[in-house]
Structure formats: C-alpha cells, structure tokens
Amino acid sequence: MAKMMYREAVQNALFAEMERDENVILLGEDIVGGMGTDGGPEAIGGIWSTSVGLFGKFGPDRVIDTPISESAIIGAAAGLALSGKRPVAELMFADFIGVCLDQIWNQVGKFRYMFGGKTKCPMVIRMAYGAGFNAAAQHSQSVHQILTGMPGLKVVMPSTPADVKGLLTQSIRDDDPVIFLEHKALYASSGEVPEGDYTIPFGHARLARAGQDVTIVATGLMVGFCESVADRLAPEGIGCDVIDLRTTSPLDEEAILDSVEVTGRLVVVDEAPPRCSLATDIAALVGQKAFASLKVPLTMVTPPHTPIPFARELESAYLPSADKIEAAVRKIMAWR
Amino acid sequence: MAKMMYREAVQNALFAEMERDENVILLGEDIVGGMGTDGGPEAIGGIWSTSVGLFGKFGPDRVIDTPISESAIIGAAAGLALSGKRPVAELMFADFIGVCLDQIWNQVGKFRYMFGGKTKCPMVIRMAYGAGFNAAAQHSQSVHQILTGMPGLKVVMPSTPADVKGLLTQSIRDDDPVIFLEHKALYASSGEVPEGDYTIPFGHARLARAGQDVTIVATGLMVGFCESVADRLAPEGIGCDVIDLRTTSPLDEEAILDSVEVTGRLVVVDEAPPRCSLATDIAALVGQKAFASLKVPLTMVTPPHTPIPFARELESAYLPSADKIEAAVRKIMAWR
Amino acid sequence: MQLSREALLRAYRQMRVIREFEERLHVEIMTGEIAGFTHLYSGQEAVAVGVCEHLDHEDKIISTHRGHGHCLAKGCDVGMMMKEIWGSREGTCKGKGGSMHIADVAQGMLGANGIVGAGAPIAVGAALAAKLDGGGRVSIAFSGDGACNQGTTFEAMNLAVVTKAPCIFVFENNHYSEHTGWKYAVGTGSDIAGRAEAFGMRVWRGDGTDFFSVYETMRDVLEHVRGGNGPAAVEFDTERFFGHFEGDPQRYRGKGEIDRLRKVRDCLTKFRTRVTGADLLADGDFGRIDAEVRDLIEKSVSEARSAARPTADDVLSDVYISY
Amino acid sequence: MQLSREALLRAYRQMRVIREFEERLHVEIMTGEIAGFTHLYSGQEAVAVGVCEHLDHEDKIISTHRGHGHCLAKGCDVGMMMKEIWGSREGTCKGKGGSMHIADVAQGMLGANGIVGAGAPIAVGAALAAKLDGGGRVSIAFSGDGACNQGTTFEAMNLAVVTKAPCIFVFENNHYSEHTGWKYAVGTGSDIAGRAEAFGMRVWRGDGTDFFSVYETMRDVLEHVRGGNGPAAVEFDTERFFGHFEGDPQRYRGKGEIDRLRKVRDCLTKFRTRVTGADLLADGDFGRIDAEVRDLIEKSVSEARSAARPTADDVLSDVYISY
Ligand SMILES: Cc1ncc(C[n+]2csc(CCOP(=O)(O)OP(=O)(O)O)c2C)c(N)n1
Ligand SMILES: Cc1ncc(C[n+]2csc(CCOP(=O)(O)OP(=O)(O)O)c2C)c(N)n1
Ligand SMILES: [Mg+2]
Ligand SMILES: [Mg+2]
Predict the structure, then answer these.
(1) Would you kindly state where each structural domain of chain B is located, as residue ranges?
(2) What proportions of chain D, in percent to the nearest 5, are helix, strand and coil?
(3) Omega into D310 within 30° of 0, i.e. cis?
(4) Cβ neighbours of residue A183 under 8 Å, at least 6 residues apart?
(5) Chain C CB contacts of D162 below 8 Å
(6) Inter-chain contact A284–B275, Cβ cutoff 8 Å?
C-alpha cells in the first residue's frame, strides 16, 4: 500500500498502462503544457496535474497536446481506437461535453452497434466534473446522468484514490468506450492505494458502510458525505448501508436491490440536477424491482432544478451536504 | 375548427406569429431551400415542409437559410434573442443536438441565471425527433430526457395538431428558451385545430383518456399507443387515465399525482432509452410523492438500453408499442 | 496516362459497380421495399474510385451519409452491402446500420456516417495511428460542399496540421448540400480548397467527373502525404445525378440540369470516350464489364431480398463487448 | 492622431481602470477572499479600450473567460463588477455569475463566457439583429488565439459571411492559450487573420499593445462594417501580463519574459510616452487620473467586501421568467 492523492492515482495508472502497452496514447488540451513556448514542453502536465511526467517519458507521439477543439480531440481518439490504439482523451472540464457530444454520443458510443458488432472502440474519455470550487454554471457540472443515459458508453465515477487506480486501469484495458469522471474536489484527497497492477471490474459497487436501516446510494464526492452521515447516525442505532456505485453504467442493480430488501428504505444522493437524473434512475429501479420491500417513500437528495451559482453561500446552498442527507434519513426513519 | 396535419399546424403557427410580431425570425438549414441554386429559393420550405411559404411572405431577413453549422445556428438565435428578437431555430433532426449542445445547455439555458436575472432569452429551438422511419441510430432518437434535465430550458412535446398550434404559439410568445420537439411519425397525422389565435399554457397536462385503475403517462407518439390500449381495455372494465404531459419541463406533477392517488398504479411510457430518462423521472416522482397510494410496483415501458437499430423488424422490436403497453398494464392489474 | 490495361479495366468496373448499385437502388426504393433514408452516389463515381484505387486495406477512409460509393470503392462486399440496405441479418452490419452506417473497419473503411462533418476528426485520429505505426499509410476524410462548413471539419483540419497527421481531406463539391447551393452556403463562394489552404496545408483541385483527373491528382497528393509532409486537401468538382435523398422533388435544380449533367458530366462516358479514343480498351471490354456488373447487382438484389431477417433478440446484442 | 484632449483622457482612464482593477484583484485573490477561477486582462487593455471607444450601448460585444477588460471598456459599473467578483448579492449578476459571467445586456455587453469559442456564434446573431434594425450597428466577438481554433468560431465566421452580418471578429493574440503557445496550436503558425480572410471577409492587423494602433485600425474596420459590407476580422498582437488564471505557475514563460513585456510592451507606458511626446497631455493629467482610479478601485474593493451576501433562497430565483 502507498498513500497517494486521487490525482496522483490518475497519473500513476496512466503511467503504468502507458509503460505496459505502447498502444495507449494520451491526447488533450495542455496535457503537456508549454508546447510552442519559450518555457518549453511539460510546463504543466495537465491542468489537474494528472499527466505530469508522461510527455518526458513517452514523448510527443504518445502524449499529444492539442488545440482547443474538443470535437476534434474526441474524434481523433475515436479514429485512433478504430485503428487499434487505446487512446485516453482528456476533456479538462466535464462541462465541455457540450462542444463535442456528437462524437461521444453518436459516434464512439454507437460504432459497435451500428457496424453490427464487427468492430471495437476501446477508448477512455477522462474529465473533471463537479462543484465545490465556486467555478459557477459552466465549470462545475455533473454530467454522469447525461452519459449514463447513452447506450454504448460505460460510465465510471471513482470516489477514492484506490478506486481511481483500479478503475482507470480497467477503463484503459476495457474494449468498450469508457467515460471516466474525476471529481475536482477529490483530486487533493488522499488514501491508501495497493501497489502494483490491479483492476476493479465494472458493475460492482463498493459497500462503504454497512447498516440495516437505510440504503444510501451515492457516487463521487457524495460518497464521503454519506459516510459521515452513517458515522453520525450509527451511535443512535440507525444503521446505513452506504453504496458507492463506482460505475453507473453498468449499474450494480443487485447491490442496491439486495440492500433495500433488507432496509426497506432508500435515499439516493446525487450531485446532478434532479430531473431525468441518476437519482431518478436509482429511485425508479427500486420502485420497480424492490417495491414489495419498501417501507417508506423513495427519497432523493439532489440540488434544486437550477444552474450552479457562483457565490460561496449560493453554491453551498445548492449542493447536497451531510446535513441535508442526514435530514433526509431522519425524515424517512420517522415516516408514519 | 379546421382539420389539418401536425406539420401544417407547425407552419400555421409560425406563419401567424411571424405576421403578428415582426421580431419573430426563423433560421435553420434548408428552411427555405434552393438558396444559391438555379431553381431558386423556396425549393422546399424545410425538409419537414414546416416552413413552406414563409420565405416568400417574409423574405430573406426573417427566414434565414443557413450553412450546415448547428452551433452557429443556435448561437445566432441566442444573439438575436439577447438583442430583442424572437428567433425560432430549426435543428432538422433532434439527433443533431450533439453538435451544438453547448449553445443550448451552457449558453441559452443559463444566461438568465448567470446574469442574475437581468436579461431574457426568448427563443424556440424546434427539432424533429423519434423513431418509426428506420432512420437508424443517428436519425431516430428522442432527446427530451437530456434537455428536460437541463435547468433553464423548457421542453414541449405536442402529440396532436391542435396542441402543436397552441403550444408552438405559446413557445414563441414565451420569454424563456423553449425546446419544441416534433415527432417525425406524427407530421402526417391530422386532427381538428381551433381557428384563430390561441395558446396552451405550459405545465398543464392533457387527460387523453379517463379511468380509475391505472395511470398511464406518455408524450408524443406514445400517447396514441396508450389511448388505443385504454380503448382496448375499457370494455374489460379496466379504466386507464392516459396523461399526455404536453410539456416535460415544466412538469404537471399535480395531474400525475392526483391520478395515481386514485388509481394506485403507474405505467410510464417513454420512447427514450431507459436510463436516467423521463420514465425514471416520473416513476421517481410518484415513488417519492404518492408512495402511500401505490398498490403495485412502478412500471416503465421503454426501449432497451441499446442504440436504435435500422431494420424494420429490429426497430419495431426496439420501440414501445400498444401491445407492450397493454402487457404492462395487465401485469400490474394482476399483481399479487 | 500510365495505367495498365488491368488497372483501366478495374477502374471502369469499380465505377460501373457503383453506378449500377445506385441506379438499381433508385428503382428498388420506389417499390417501398427498402426502409430508411438512402442517399445515392451516382455521378460522383470517379471521385471514390479515383481516390481508392491508390489505397489498400491498411489505408483508412471515412465517409458520409452518401457512403455507398466510398464503401464499394474501398472493397466492401457488394452482396453484403445490398443485404444491409435491405435490413438483413446477413448484411455488413447485421441489419443494424442500414445505408447510412455501412462500415468495414478491417478493409480500412471506417464507416458511412449520418452526422455531417463527423468523419473528419475521426480521420485525423486514424492518421495519427498511421503516423505512429510508420510505413506511410494515410487516412482520408470524404466531405461534401455542405460538410465543409461544419465546425468539426475545420477543427479537424487544424488538428491535422498541428499534429502533422497524414490525413487527406477530400471535398466532393457536388454543388448542393441537400437543397442549398454551395455558392450560397460556402462563404468563399466557389472556393472550398482555398479555405482549406489557409489552414496551413497544401491543396489540390481536380475534375471529379473525370477519373483520370482524380487519379492523377491523388497520385500527387498521396506522394506528398505519404512522404511525411503532413495533411493535404483536395477539392473535386463533381455532380450528383439524383436528389439529395431518394424522394427529393429537386425543385432547386435548373431546368434540364440533370439531363445536361448526364450528357456532359458523366464520368463513365468520359472514361470510355477517352480510353477508346486512345485505343486502350475496346467497346467489347466495356460491354463485357457492363454485363458482368449487371449480373452481379441483379444477384445481390435477389439474394438480399431473400436473405435472413433479424429477430427481436438481435436488438440487444453488439452494444458492448462486455457489460 | 485626431483625438481630442477629452478622448485621450478618457482612453487613458479606461485603460488605467482596467489595469488597476486587475492588479488589485491579483493581490486580493492571494488572500483567498475571492472564490472561483479568475483570469486577468492586464496587458491587453489597449485592445478592449481601443475597440470599445468606438462603440455605444447599441453596439454589442461578447467576451470570453478573460472578460473584465471588455466589460469595463463597454461601460459595466466598476463597483458592481467588483461586488460580483466578491460574490455579493449587489453584484452585476447578484453573485450568481462571478468573474466568468459578468454581463450587462442593456449596455450591449452580452457577457463574459466560460466556454471557449461560444461567443462568436452569439455575436453573429446580435449582428443579424443589428442588420434587421438598420442603423449601422455592429456586434463584436472577442476571441483569443486559443479560441480561434474552436469549431464554433469557424462556423460563426462562415455564417457571418453568408448572411452578410455586421459582425467583427476581434482576435486578441496574446500568444498563449492557457499554457500552450499559439505557434503550436494555430496550424497556420503566426497567422490568425490570414485564416479568417480565407473565410471570405476583409481582415486587418494591429498592435494590441498600442492604443492608437487599435483605435485607428478599428476606425477602418468599423467604417467598412457599418457601411453594410458584411463581417470583418482583426488580429491584434498583444500580451498577457499575468498567468492564464490566478494561481498559474507560468513555467511555460521564457526567462525574464514578463519583466521584458512589462517594460517594452505596456500599453499604458506606450500611450503616455506617445502622448506626452506629442505634448497632448501632461504628466499631471496622468497623475490625476491614476490617483482618481486608485481611489475608485479602493472604494469598489472596500464596498465589495462589506456588500450584502446572497442567501440560500437566491439559489432558486432567476432560472425562468415564468415556470
Ligand atoms: C450535423 C448534421 N446536420 C445536418 C444534417 C442533415 N444533412 C444530411 S446530408 C446534408 C447535406 C450535406 O451536404 P454535402 O456535405 O454537400 O454532402 P452531399 O449530400 O452533397 O453528398 C444535411 C444538411 C446531418 N445529417 N447532420
Ligand atoms: C470549450 C472549452 N475548452 C477549453 C476550455 C478551457 N480554457 C479556458 S481558457 C482556455 C484558453 C483560451 O485561450 P485564448 O483563446 O487564447 O484566450 P486567453 O486565455 O489567452 O485570453 C482554455 C483552454 C474552456 N473554457 N472551454
Ligand atoms: Mg454536396
Ligand atoms: Mg490567448
């Protein structure tokens, strides 16, 4: 085990996979930094410092800095993947899927199906998502709900450095296109990461806390909030199963349903806006497939149906928090 | 009352609003047709024939044919709207939001909020959506789930010619940005349309059929399927409330919840893929707010989690149908 | 003209296959048997063939909604393509893609594409792969005079220049994007290549109704690009003999335009005139090929008509490799 | 140089306000009091002011993530902007937008914008509105040397040419997009205007560290565009004195680069030298303005610091006009 930051785990997995397989190619804006400047290349190694040292080690053919043109970046990654490479494209901010969604949605996600299963498109699109930096409406969004809804894509949302390592390694080795969502506010968090080579299979949730009374389902930054709620409530005898989904597509339905069958209570915590979201997805799953076990109404803790505001007070009011989650749990524990 | 086709109702509403308000401006690809050709302008009037005659009547400054560049089209509409006009942009196929989503999502939908409520952006983005033409994975999609999830946008899905007229008129007069989704397979359908000027307010569902046993919620093409299921089941004494949402954002929560309080049974029918969808949205709403009334599991009838296939057999197997809806209703009527 | 007899026969045959394929579809579509939207390539054969005759399966191409010609020229199987268009389970894409999504990645054909402008960025990626692998392979993006206005096409050109990707942007100017004239939609009036040149690459122009013009132009382009000089662009002036899609009333055409084009801008006639004029092939050669191709297409249609249909279960496969 | 004394004083003052605003923010941001990402405009003042001094509130501009300079030059209120950056409820956007989203549509300022390349298409729409209304109004899209590679910018240029929209694309080449040099990212090497020209419009070039160069260039550009000749583009060569965003370690800069730029490429110094050299304004004039501006900024900061904070309820308003 080694203690490292979430962002280091990203770099670590990229480094190891690039060393292991020469077909792994990175591309994105400023993933090198300093191209065409007097300071020279490798000035930054990605604005999240997730590709530091990779250009120096693997050179300009495998670590490709690009102009600002996200459609071209994702398209180029798709072309590389169709040609036998394993590209890892970085979008910098998840909010930028708006300028390249066609390539993600209508191209990459559909090649295999449209072409009758005769090809594969093994590529990873990494992007930083989430609020917490007062970066306002265009640089703080969660987009997993949009991408999870798109058949043909896999969607990964690690919440710990160890999961970053195992899931990113799996993403790169996976033969399907994978969206890899890194939460900005987790980059500087640290944790133990197993040494050496390991992968975490997709579609297997992690039980972050175990309890018998309420099932709490979350991803990314929200997982930590839920864990602290579980820890707060445990002394009172309220037991929370905190399920960290790890991947939203594929989804570990079994973990959720098994838990709700025991608890009879569901709280879904989601950082995305509330409509047509992962929160509604999980709630609907449970309302369809574990209805008979349900003791109380389905419960969602999400931001309101608004864009993300800038000011500190507004952003905190907007985001789910441990307090809001706690209140939701208490409310359903008191139901009827 | 006049009998007209759904597509004629679009043209009719556009014509009337353009005549009424000189600030209404249309733009899009081939909405005129024949620009820069020997055959000359107005060769087509929109590939769905929804702008026939408008160029001739209102001229090139108000009916603007554009190159293939959807981001520029939506952006230009946004700039027109911020400058006091009321643009109506046409995207031709809803699937093309992939190449211009940023303008819809991060610009148009957020101006008012980001700018602290000091401006408005009154514009309509019309697009043809939906399957039924064997147009395969990139020309058949439903996108309301993506856009409904985006705060700042309103989303309208008319199912009849009369609703097209009233809702499109409202959309053009509305001061917020509106996504207006026209189902391809309904363009040639006809129905009675009231004469003259009328609007249908947003957020008010239409009760297409009334019944006491099951609440069926649907939009667009699906509404007709649900109506026929209601008609099939009525003689057996199974009464269906068929709720045509008309707008998915704002959503008429009350109509849905009131109905489920009576029926205790919900079937949501949705043409979009099943994950993070409008179907899950409605199901989650009911599971949260009408839980105590629910007698049976929440039920969704949707396509599978796959892209849309081409061949006739495959597309029919993919799409919800009256038979599948009927089976779903029968299943919950027989539950326990 | 330094082409061997075999090469000439092959080029003619390739163009004739495309023509026959498309003309036959035009007829079949009217019967209502074929589903979906179909965009025919008749009139532009010289471009697809003049380009692809220089390539083998290790070179990549990516196409557009008007993809049949590129697919055939790049070596996709005629019978399987016809079956695909008929929606058969035995088609190139098992009936899941249809006319707009025919692909054969093993042949270096990265797919027809329903989204205008989507191909160019993908071609840049394939070119980057070729560059990594060495060996002088190239990747070619076919685009129309409409697609050349899409932001993705511009981005792709810039990225190719920046990364010195061996990518060739082939613009087929058939003068229409759907129902709109290129003089209106391309801001530079009649100049698509000139705009590409300003992105920082060498450009060429050729007559897209003349196989020899295309073929010879592409020889130079390919020499340049295979030689490691980065991307290039070519504009071929060509003609579309049918409507934008099957069913297009074509009110935007000038009076008698199509008749005139069929008379003076038909690449097959031009080829034949030139080649017989130079005594390289004889009438009998053409007659033989024409008959052979007619049989081939006839056979492909009758087989497509009776080929196995997909079943409901097929909807669910091929979304993921593992899930 | 035909500017009146008043105009010169005003121009200098505008540039000084921007400089002081930004230099002060640079200091304040280090204390951690200000939230979010902030991109400073110091070094480029001559562009914003040299352009906007020709405009009034009926002309429109749209800006970028680096928006403070454009906002100030176009007449946004200094105090309200500072409050916005501080996240106050009394700010330009009630604390909802922050640095990257300051807008004042009534002033013709259509907003800073966090998405690179998003502004250009919107500017085309504003230009179309101006064209409809008659009266020779224009709309201006500010873009950087990075944004000029984004597909949306290219699409906007083509659409403007096709629709003859009175739109001006002002490219501020400060040589960096984030941490990347423009020579790398712009495929045409050092030529942004040349590429714009190939889209079919007239282009100009100017020195973006020299107010007079910008001002005079823009006089010609505006005469052309207000005269109904369609769009135009201008490239101004300029400099960014701070990092891409506040916090940028700037390892990509050459040794001593910023010191050198501050010495030889400072638009304020250049202005002062030229204007005093020509005996148009005296040292006292500058001193007075400098002091006045320092006070103005001081006051705006102290007011921003104590201005009303938004409350949780404010999250919910301003999403829709009616819902
Ligand atoms: C992004 C996108 N916008 C619009 C369309 C609709 N469309 C399909 S083909 C076409 C015209 C393309 O013109 P061109 O590039 O000249 O190709 P051609 O049809 O002449 O082969 C249009 C507008 C589309 N498929 N995708
Ligand atoms: C679509 C999009 N891609 C990337 C970014 C991240 N980003 C913000 S500013 C910037 C560089 C912009 O460079 P330039 O246009 O030269 O403007 P400057 O920063 O020099 O003012 C980048 C890459 C973004 N905000 N939006
Ligand atoms: Mg064309
Ligand atoms: Mg720059």
Answers:
(1) 2-193, 206-334
(2) 50, 10, 40
(3) no
(4) A6, A128, A129, A130, A157, A159, A220, A221
(5) 184-185, 187
(6) no
Which DSSP state fits D75? T
Using a 6 Å cutoff on CB, does residue D153 contact ligand 2? no
Q: Is B93 helix (H, G, I), strand (E, B) or coil?
A: strand
Strands A178-183 and A154-156 turn out to be parallel
**Residue-wise DSSP of C66-81:** S-HHHHHHTT--HHHH
Pairing of strands B154-156, B247-249: antiparallel
* CA neighbor of D83 nearest in space, from D300, D323, D291: D300
Active-site annotation holds for B139? yes
- pLDDT given for residue C1 in this prediction: 56
ipTM score of complex? 0.98
Tell me the per-residue pLDDT of C242-290, one tens digit each, with 9 for 90 and over: 999 999 999 999 999 999 999 999 999 999 999 999 999 999 999 999 9
Q: Are the beta carbons of C114 and B312 separated by less than 8 Å?
A: no
How many A-B residue pairs are in contact by the CB < 8 A criterion? Answer: 163
C313, burial (CB in 10 Å: exposed 0-12, middle 13-18, buried 19+): exposed
Supply D120's token pair. Answer: 């250009």
The C-alpha of A178 sits at a distance from chain C's nearest C-alpha, in angstroms, of 11
Q: Mean per-residue pLDDT for A171-190?
A: 98
Of B35, B72, B309, the CB nearest to C181: B35
Q: What are phi and psi of C256, to 5 degrees?
A: 70, 10
pLDDT confidence of residue C12: 98
Express each pLDDT in B16-61 by its tens digit.
999 999 999 999 999 999 999 999 999 999 999 999 999 999 999 9
Q: What are phi and psi of A220, to 5 degrees?
A: 55, -135
Please work out whether the CB of residue D144 comes within 6 Å of at least one atom of ligand 2: yes
Q: Measure the CA dihedral B7/B9/B13/B16, to 10°.
A: 110
Residue B300 near residue A280, CB atoms below 8 Å: no
- Average pLDDT across chain A, whole number: 98
Report the distance separating Cα C174 and Cα D2, nearest Å. 52
Helices of type H across chain D: 5-30, 45-52, 68-73, 78-85, 119-133, 151-163, 182-185, 192-197, 211-226, 257-264, 267-277, 283-306
For residue A285, pLDDT over 60 is answered with yes
Give the gap in angstroms from C-alpha D276 to the nearest C-alpha of chain B.
41
pLDDT bracket for residue D1 (50, 70, 90): low
3-state secondary structure (DSSP) of residue D24: helix
Around ion ligand 3, residues with a beta carbon closer than 5 Å are: C 144-145, 174, 176-177
Please say whether the beta carbons of A298 and A274 come within 8 A: no
Q: How many other CB atoms are found less than 10 A from the CB of residue A322?
A: 18
Q: N- to C-terminal Cα distance for chain C?
A: 54
pTM (2 decimals)? 0.99
Are the beta carbons of A319 and A131 closer than 8 angstroms? yes
Beta-strand runs (E) in chain B: 2-5, 24-28, 63-65, 86-93, 124-129, 154-156, 178-183, 190-193, 206-209, 214-218, 240-244, 247-249, 266-269, 299-301
CATH of B2-193, one of 1.20.1440.230, 3.40.50.970, 3.90.79.10, 3.40.50.2300: 3.40.50.970
Closest by Cα among C264, B297, B331, D93 to A257: B297
Q: What is the DSSP letter of B250?
A: S
Q: Which CATH architecture does the domain made up of D5-304 adopt?
A: 3-Layer(aba) Sandwich (3.40)
Q: Which subunits sit against C, judged by 3+ Cβ pairs under 8 A?
A: A, B, D
> Which CATH architecture best describes the domain A206-334?
3-Layer(aba) Sandwich (3.40)
